[in-house]
Amino acid sequence: MGSRNRERRKAKQKARASRGRAQAAGSGPGAFFQQERSQRESLAEAIDMLVATTLNARSDQDDAVVAECLGALVAAPGGPIGRRAVNRSLTGWVDRAVGGLWQGGWQPVDLHRIVTRRAGQRPARLVVDAIALQMRQYAAATVDERWKAQLQVLDATVWWDHDDAWLDAWGDREGRDRAQVLVDMLDLLAELHSLPRIELLCPLPGTARRAPHGLGNGQGNGNARRAEGGQPAGSTSDPSADPSANPRMLDKVRALLAKAESTEFAEEAEALTAKAQEFMARHSIDEALLAAGEGSREQPAGCRVGIDNPYEAAKASLLDVVAGANRCRSVWAKELGFATVVGFQPDLDAVELLYTSLLVQATAAMMRAGSRQDRAGRSRTRSFRQSFLASFAVRIGERLMAATEQASEQAAAETGDGRLLPVLAARTDSVREATETMFPEIISRAVSATDGEGWASGRAAADLASLHTREEVTADPRG
């Protein structure tokens, strides 16, 4: 916004506040609303205008106007009637804000992640309520399965009795007084209004239709296990959200990887992860051949994977190599705390599950390596760990790519289907084209590694990570 426009808007805000002060001097805090009513504006319209003035003043960092507007909202006239009117206005504002963000590509878990990242846990709890409020208006049959799964993961439910009393109930639950509750809501609104448009990955609420059986729905399984930092490492949905995936197979994969991460024995972890990898690889190949045989017009889809500090650049690099080895593409939005992975559904499933498992393994190996100091006794732990994870990612990428190529060749030989390699190549091209269409200005950057010992240790850990070829798997991956 230009400086002249900003000054003009500031002047208007101060003029409104001045009118409120003049009336308040003779008649108390309700005078602002009385003046608006005398101009044939309803109480609701007056409050909406005051909320807009508050948000604009926040944007312009005009603390004096913000404080005055907040005081008027807290001291709304008419007792309970005025209080409920303020509640209704703010509820309407947040409902419209969340609905607009759906249009802008955001999904429930995306909103929860970004609000947590930028504002903290209490605003994150408030946005879950706002999501529940907004989603209530849609018939269940018109809401995509991915959205339903995300709502379940977030436990986004309307727990209050009446919308007019939601903010009061919120204050009671959180131990916040009236002024603090209004500040919480205004802070959340300001945060939501600051979010940019992002890529639309699935049908909007109210528009979803059930897809034909067997086609992917464009969202990964959203592995619910947690990686370093206690945040979900998977995508924006729950495993049950994908009707095209074999639930029994995915359950086996999750169970195997969970055991691989928890065992203290390297050989057991290798065997368990090898089986899980086999299940996913064979599932992806079977789906590709089935789609080609049926002449399916299925297109690449996308999912979002949270990438959080510390060492977020190295984690994004790990996700990128895992995606590449599984014929997917990953695009990292650092400022938003996630990467978008583009690919066909079975491959997206493999990327999410394998990335989460490898991140857990890499983090555990990094922590076992301990801290580091230079010769002067100064800590170089951060540079060591950054280099460790960067090296781990590079080496894992090499191993994954080799394993993927070998698995494809063996599958083609076993099935005798000469279409497999051309089909997989065509899928890779489709993913590249879809990614370039979705992200026309992709810029690739290498992750810096400044600690030689960290690089060597990370590469060694990658060599020990649980990745093996098909010969070591005895279970039937389609069982």
From TrEMBL:
Organism in which the protein naturally occurs: Frankia torreyi
Question: Ranges for the DUF2786 domain?
Answer: 248-287
Where is the segment annotated Disordered? 1-37, 211-247
One Pfam match? DUF7168
Annotated coiled-coil segments of the chain: none
Bias class Basic residues marks the residues at 1-19
Q: Which residues form the DUF7168 domain?
A: 315-425
**Name of the featured protein:** Uncharacterized protein
